[in-house]
Amino acid sequence: MMINFLIGRFEKKQQKSSDIRTAFGIFAGIVGLLSNMLLFVSKFLIGLISGSVSIMADAMNNLSDTVSSVLTLVGFYISGKPADEEHPYGHERFEYISGMLVSLLITFVGFQFFMTSIDRIKNPQSITVTPVILIILVLSILIKVWQSVFYQRVAKKIDSNTLVATAKDSLNDVFTTIAVLVSATVEGVTGLKIDGIVGLVIACYIIFSGLQLIREFVNELMGLRPNQAAIDEMKLYLSSVSEIVGYHDLLIHQYGPSKMFASVHIEIDDRWDLTKAHETIDEIENKFKKQLGVELVCHIDPVNLHDQRQQFIHQELKKVIKGISDELKGHDIRLVDHGGKPRILFDLVVPNHFKGTDQELKIRLQEQVYRNIGDYIVEITFDHNYLL
């Protein structure tokens, strides 16, 4: 309830903001900064009092979270800057860079306490456990649970992978603090010196989490395939445009969480004049921008719909391709029948996981065309990089 109230109140204040996404990101960074600083100071003090390396490791983990919150603030501030001459597609990808820095910091802290824990295992020491220490650890667990839920809600509202990662990190901290609490309780009750072992487990967990996050942000920076829901939404809209014959060669480029550009080939009747073709393409591009938030550029492919021979070849070739595999898609099918033996030219979209080489596919298709269509030379352009 408190989280919903906090988010709702902030959203109401930001109604006139031109960039609500950046405002929410900075807001989440400030909340994280304050709460993580409070946790660091409290755990650092009880770690010094008790002499527990696992509590100190947990405290330094919260310090890294504090720095992470600063990086989140900086990341959202820079990513919210408008496009300029040097960055014509905006600065949103900086959010991925700040997320990468957070991940590197988490991993570094994990390695530091891995070494400290090894030393504590070799040289075990008694720790002092008091009710106040246990209460502070329990409270820190509750704060981290609250933090994780808060980050998840904001991440969902603004579609931020950086805040999703931060929410996961907060949830990881819940488990590490529970381990510290168990360690302190066991030593307080039984006298068993397991502080170094628990610290080692926490350090390994921190390292593993950091490496996972690094992998995620490296993928973001390299360029991931768009999520299937976004692709399906584009397919649904393009399929609903009754005026066009079809579409293919969809490419999507993302320059941040909300900066998406795409290009697609639109098949139209070759009897259309340029004005009609231009108006249709304009309408498709405008609706993509308004409904999907995607900057679309369309390439026109004229299709012969009135020549019976062309239509026969088109239909039969589609059957031949489907007979080899439902995963293969043919388009831009053309007949060239002048100056020698007639040729069938077309593009073939081949998924990356498809078994067999392009040359093997070409031989199979040539044989099937000769058997089912006629004595034509087959010339194929293989496409491996398109989504549709």
From TrEMBL:
SUPFAM superfamilies: Cation efflux protein cytoplasmic domain-like, Cation efflux protein transmembrane domain-like
Species of provenance: Enterococcus plantarum
Recorded topology in the membrane: Multi-pass membrane protein
Name assigned to this protein: Cation transporter
Residue stretches spanning the membrane: 20-46, 96-115, 127-146, 196-214
Keyword Transmembrane helix listed: yes
Family label: Belongs to the cation diffusion facilitator (CDF) transporter (TC 2.A.4) family.
Gene Ontology CC terms: membrane
All copies of domain Cation efflux protein transmembrane, residue ranges: 30-222
Alphabetical list of Pfam families matching this protein: Cation_efflux, ZT_dimer
A GO term, aspect molecular function: monoatomic cation transmembrane transporter activity
Localization in the cell: Membrane
Keywords: Membrane, Transmembrane, Transmembrane helix, Transport
Major site of localization recorded for this protein: membrane
Alphabetized InterPro entries for the sequence: Cation_efflux, Cation_efflux_CTD, Cation_efflux_CTD_sf, Cation_efflux_TM, Cation_efflux_TMD_sf, CDF_Transporter
Domain named Cation efflux protein cytoplasmic: residues: 228-302
